[in-house]
Amino acid sequence: MKVLVTGSKGMLAKDLIPLIKAEHETFFFDINEVDITNKEQLFDLVSNVRPDIIINCAAYTLVDDAEANREAAFHVNAYGVQQLALACEEFKSVLCHFSTDYVFDGKSTRPYLPDDEPNPISVYGESKRAGEVFVQSILNRYYLIRTSSLYGKHGDNFVYTILRLAKNKEPLRVVQDQRMSPTWTVNLAQGVMQLISSGKFGVYHFTDRTGAGISWFEFAKEILKTKGLSNQIEPAVSEEFSRPAKRPAYSVLDTTSFTLSSGYEPMPWKESLRRFLDTI
Ligand SMILES: NC(=O)c1ccc[n+]([C@@H]2O[C@H](COP(=O)([O-])OP(=O)(O)OC[C@H]3O[C@@H](n4cnc5c(N)ncnc54)[C@H](OP(=O)(O)O)[C@@H]3O)[C@@H](O)[C@H]2O)c1
Using one digit for the tens of pLDDT, what is the confidence trace for 127-147? Predict the structure, then answer.
């Protein structure tokens, strides 16, 4: 297949592109080469390359900054995604796009299914939801993959933050009242490779396997344990940290349909973490 990747310098893209290159004719562009909000540039590119599939890794991902920069978040996550969907429609490409657990409000008491009603509680979540709506209303042939709490070698993320804080030898306080499923970008990249060869279009959820989810506190404890670090760590509640964007209290995603369509079984979260820590 001819595969075109946008946002090629992002954390997920950097783990995904080598896998695509190994199997497909690959074209990849960062924001300086192709800005997904630049309609003319985007349509020229897609018209020249004529990809079978566009994998959109471009996004505005600054969750807290988005609260004060609504327009900037919507410009990329909604308008940019709309342009991508329109380009796919025009040039008959499939679109693979990523969204987030933050489209949900966190009130569920069981893992969210792809068909559950989104109700974002942050500007970032709203902007990502707007992008989803454009994809679903413009296209029939799309993979829309919601994922959660990504960490990987090539971007700033929670694992790096904990390791950085641990160096200061101060006691750590980490929230225990938000449950989620962390996801290693390498696993997501492998899952995506299998899903895009399935031809089974639709909305999917992909995370590492946690069962009923874990708290950020449990995740941080496991990071320290796996690295053999003996820092003191205490559970905290979200109100202790004043952050501009609200986070859902519960954002565990049900990945069953992803596995059924792609054949990819999510890796248990502790194993993913151990493997990731071995690579850095
Ligand atoms: N990270 C997470 O925890 C998480 C969780 C759930 C879902 N997701 C979703 O997963 C996807 C990948 O996330 P990620 O963490 O890999 O994101 P990332 O590291 O922030 O990468 C996004 C990339 O998109 C680029 N970009 C921004 N605006 C653009 C534009 N107008 N045109 C082209 N490129 C543009 C960014 O460039 P600059 O850096 O120069 O702006 C960056 O290289 C996103 O859709 C995100 O919403 C992420």
Answer: 999 999 999 999 999 999 999
- What is the spatial distance between Cα 202 and Cα 153, in angstroms, rounded to a whole number? 29
Q: Of the listed 60, 112, 124, 204, which one is catalytic? A: 124
Find the farthest-apart pair of alpha carbons in the chain and give their distance in angstroms, rounded. 56
Q: Tell me which H or E stretch contains 162.
A: helix 158-167
185 CA → ligand 1 middle, Å: 12
Residue range 2-155+184-208+253-266 in CATH 3.40.50.2000: no
Contacting residues for 5 by C-beta, under 8 A, at least 6 apart: 13, 16, 17, 20, 26, 27, 28, 29, 54, 55, 56, 57
What is the pairing mode between strands 179-180 and 214-215? antiparallel
Helix, strand, coil shares of the chain as percentages rounded to 5? 45, 20, 40
157: which 2 tokens?
């993320």
The secondary structure of residue 266, as a DSSP letter, is: P
CA-nearest residue for atom 40, ligand 1, is: 31
Asked about 124 being catalytic, the answer comes back as yes
**Global pTM exceeds 0.90:** yes
Domain ranges of the chain: 2-155+184-208+253-266
Instruction: Give 108-125 pLDDT, tens digit per residue.
Output: 999 999 999 999 999 999
Structure-token pair, residue 47:
């018209």
CA distances from 224 to 164, 177, 184, 219 (A): 11, 19, 17, 9
